[in-house]
Design brief:
The chain is mainly α. 45% of the residues lie in helices and 9% in strands. The protein is built from 20 helices and 12 strands. A 3-stranded parallel sheet has the order 1-2-3. Strands 4-5-8 form a 3-stranded antiparallel sheet. A two-stranded antiparallel sheet has the order 6-7. Strand 1, helix 1 and strand 2 form a beta-alpha-beta unit. Helix 16 packs across helix 17. It is elongated and about 105 Å long. The mean pLDDT is 95. Monomer.
């Protein structure tokens, strides 16, 4: 029979909901991390509660200021805001663990006074030796040997020059909780031994500082990845001690989101997978609306027949209880398709502004475009907004508008018909007589000259001039491109390809 969840578990709802995002500043932000903050943020916003953003930077060997700044960059790019935490402050500052050591010392003192922790002097070698002598498997680890040391024994260890670690006295009964996503979970008594909270020498460990920060910051709902679920038992044990010691008055609720799998196999999406690199996805040309929409589908859905929706719609509907506990697979093609849908939802001016960094990054324009280039972008943007799934595709589509000499793609030249020069010459003759050099005027002239008079199919007729203008087999609409380039430049480029073909 399973144990009953602790009656001291929070019942907070609505505006009393407090969630947190607490990454370590190590390495580049990845999409799994963003899915975590997205679900926490959406849950807080849906309930009218608070999101706390703190940094777990107690590992000096791995943490870096560069990674911290990248985390800030990631959240700001994603337009995910927070109510308390680093950079914005709040009543529970400081929000970086490296600045909270005095706080942890005070909490440890309260646990000592409450008899919840004890001094442990056993070394790893001594633990292994005792396990071997007692016929106990080494992997079972610590044997709770130091629980009942006498004052004399402790004094003797100190006289040897040993410094104690501090271990939590784990309850000798089952520990249960109701997972927000997975339902009731029970950890049987004896599932894990008394564990270290503070190392010898006074260094506090993650299993201590993470729940302590949650307790002191009033976190009501801990929403995190399934891979952290095994640590929940230890956190429940520590939380019970924190309540008994007067550090907090309640135990939070826990919810464990499904794993995100790679595109193939059944392994968790690795930080080393290209799909996991958040900034690589940005470099490709994801917009935050599209990527967040897709990441929300990794465990949740707005409706069974609808994959594309706004963040406001997500917030209005989101409940952590609706998250599916089954693993979710990252599908790059689906992510890009959804991103394309969101690109088409942007208004024209917004889309034009967002493609500027990509055109600049490709070297076609300056980071601060000239007025002439701004005008070209404004006119050309609608021609590709309906055709791209990623902003990174735009330079390849519009780059021809910002160069004087077209570079012909090899596949474009190979795809030209044998009579390409004849077609290009006919194009030039037809366009020379066009006074109304608009898309409609150009189309009428070319249709008459190539389709009616030469009897060419449109696919054959318009392929050569497309390559002449853009250097590519695929481009924005041909007639609108000619209008943007103007009559003189269009004729020059048609002639240039004829010469190139010899």
């Amino acid at each position: 029979m399973s144990a009953t969840p602790d009656p001291r578990t929070t019942t907070a709802t609505g505006a009393d909901v407090r969630v947190r995002f607490c990454p370590s500043p190590t390495g580049l932000p990845h999409v799994g991390l963003i899915r975590t903050v997205l679900f926490n943020w959406a849950y807080a916003r849906h309930n009218g509660g608070k999101l706390v953003f703190r940094i777990e930077d107690t590992d000096a060997a791995r943490d870096s200021e560069e990674s911290y700044q990248q985390l800030l960059d990631a959240l700001r790019w994603m337009n995910i805001d927070w109510d308390e935490g680093v950079e914005v402050g709040g009543p529970h500052a400081p929000y970086r663990q490296s600045q909270r050591h005095e706080i942890y010392r005070e909490v440890l003192d309260k646990l000592v006074a409450a008899g919840a922790v004890y001094e442990s002097y056993s070394t790893a070698e001594e633990i292994d030796a005792r396990n071997e002598a007692n016929g106990r498997a080494k992997q079972l680890g610590y044997d709770n040997f130091d629980r009942d040391l006498t004052d004399e024994q402790r004094a003797a260890f100190r006289a040897e020059g040993r410094q104690p670690a501090w271990r939590l006295r784990v309850p000798d009964h089952d520990l249960s909780y109701v997972d927000l996503i997975r339902g009731e979970v029970t950890f049987p008594a004896g599932s894990f031994p008394d564990f270290v909270l503070v190392r010898a020498g006074g260094v506090p460990l993650y299993p201590f500082v993470n729940p302590v920060d949650d307790a002191l910051m009033g976190i009501t709902h801990v929403i995190r990845g399934e891979d952290l679920m095994p640590s929940t038992a230890r956190q429940l044990a520590l939380y019970s001690a924190l309540v008994n010691a007067g550090v907090t008055t309640f135990i939070p609720r826990f919810g464990h989101m499904p794993l995100v799998l790679g595109e193939t196999g059944n392994k968790k999406l690795s930080k080393r997978d290209p799909q996991a690199d958040l900034f690589l996805q940005r470099e490709k040309g994801f917009i935050h609306e599209g990527l967040l929409n897709y990441l929300s589908l990794l465990g949740w859905s707005l409706a069974s027949d609808r994959d594309v929706f706004s963040l406001d719609e997500m917030i209005a509907a989101f409940d952590i209880a609706d998250v599916n506990p089954n693993p979710a697979r990252f599908d790059q093609k689906k992510a890009e398709a959804i991103n394309g849908d969101h690109i088409r939802m942007l208004d024209a001016d917004d889309f034009a502004a967002r493609i500027v960094p990509y055109l600049a990054g490709a070297g076609y324009i300056a980071e601060e475009p000239s007025e002439e280039h701004r005008a070209i972008i404004a006119a050309a943007a609608p021609l590709v907004q309906e055709r791209v799934q990623l902003l990174g595709e735009v330079p390849g589509m519009l780059g021809f508008l910002f160069v004087s000499d077209v570079s012909y793609a090899e596949d474009a030249l190979k795809g030209l018909p044998a009579n390409a020069a004849e077609v290009l010459t006919a194009c030039s003759r037809a366009l020379e007589g066009v006074d109304d050099f608009t898309a409609a005027g150009v189309q009428a002239a070319l249709s008459t000259a190539l389709v009616d008079e030469l009897g060419l199919k449109p696919r054959v007729a318009y392929g050569p001039p497309r390559v002449a203008l853009t250097g590519r087999r695929v481009s924005p609409p041909l007639f609108e491109s000619m209008e943007l380039l103007g009559k003189d430049e269009t004729l020059r480029r048609l002639s240039a390809l004829v010469q190139h073909l010899g």
